Description:
Strand content: 25-35%
Shape: elongated
Order of helices and strands: EEEHEEEEE
Number of strands: 8
Amino acid sequence: MTDKKFKYVPFVTEVMTARYPKLSEPDTKGEYADGKYKTEATADDDYTERFKAEIQAVIDTHFPGKKRIELPWKATKDGAIAFNFKSPKKQPILTDAKGELLKSGIIIRGGSLIRITGVIAAWEKGVKRGVSLWPDAVRVIKLAEGFDSAAAFGAPEDGFDGKIYAPWCDHPECRFRRGPSQ
């Protein structure tokens, strides 16, 4: 099989809604984990049609008359179109709405409003061909807040302390102190 050949066209999206984002860290857990930075994103109907047309123009330019081209979008259960953005090798630059880099530890969750810049990559590998959306940078317009179930309890309470109740613990108050044979 021949090597992949790529042709690149830059893009900048309007505001979209992130779905299943793995932008703060790569997707490394679960059955479909591939170690890549990625997100799906949806937009209003007007922008969805315009972005699809932009992608179709790349397809028409690089694959005229060709059929069976892998597309970077899919229909969701509720009938919306979700675009698939996936970085092949590197983490996209993550910024806030003002263009400042996001601090470490900020997690972009589903429902966040984002804009993405990158390239539309038209590719061919053997008889397969398609178009991928590779993000270079993501601007977070509105960060979706996640539910921190542990924070729902409020302030720390008196009682059990897991740090001093562990097998073979060296803490003086621990029940399971190391004996001479351990």
